[in-house]
């Protein structure tokens, strides 16, 4: 791929893929699903730049005026390649961090860049009712099945060989990739929203149970106070009964003593 226009379009494709990768990182998702595709695209871009540089040197040796334009385009492509490689490897330069992903080379891709840089839409309004034995939700099961294709290892198919595609085909391929990624992010956002609502419902149920336990504890404390009062009352009655027995015994002994004195006289 020595055609500079195709190389600039390929650079735009890599920029959009890196923007999607950054958006996945911001959503705490696995960003490695497109790493294999980005690596292959960077390798294709490097080979195309080398071919363009060789062609520019060949034309320059022949004193061809077209060599100046080709040399300038190759230099711009080389700069973008270095910036994109640094961004992908995680060691972006100041230039790469500020401008590498900001503007497309092809004005027709401006809308795609705006979409890729925008935050993904979220819809968290759907509520989930918490039950002790929840029945499986068919919609949630379908979304879960749709999310399971996320794997640590990238797909082996990868993008098509760009050398056999024209600009329109590369643009259409990239739009399909962006659309598929947006759909996957939307499904993941809906699933996260349902999990959040379910967690809120569980928290509400736990709060209600804690309130019920507090009420039970309050009733137990109140009944324990009544039992303590009844026990104290029984203790007082027992002490009074013991005192009455002693008085009765003293009276009986006095009577017996009086009788003995009378009898002995």
Q: What report would you give on this structure?
A:
There is one protein chain. The protein has 265 residues and is mainly α. Helices cover 74% and strands 0% of the residues. The protein has helices spanning 4-26, 35-61, 66-89, 94-100, 110-117, 138-147, 167-264. It starts with a helix and ends with a helix.
Distance between the termini: 150 Å
Beta-strand content estimate: under 5%
Please bin the fraction of helical residues. over 70%
Continuous helix count: 7
| Rg, Å, rounded | 43 Å
Number of E-type strands: 0
Give the rounded overall mean pLDDT. 76
Largest sheet: none
Order of helices and strands: HHHHHHH
Shape: rod-shaped
Decide which structural class fits the backbone.
mainly alpha
Unreliable stretches covering 5 or more consecutive residues: 94-98, 121-130, 149-156
Name the descriptors:
0% strand, 265 residues, mainly alpha, single chain
Topology:
Layout: H1 4-26, H2 35-61, H3 66-89, H4 94-100, H5 110-117, H6 138-147, H7 167-264
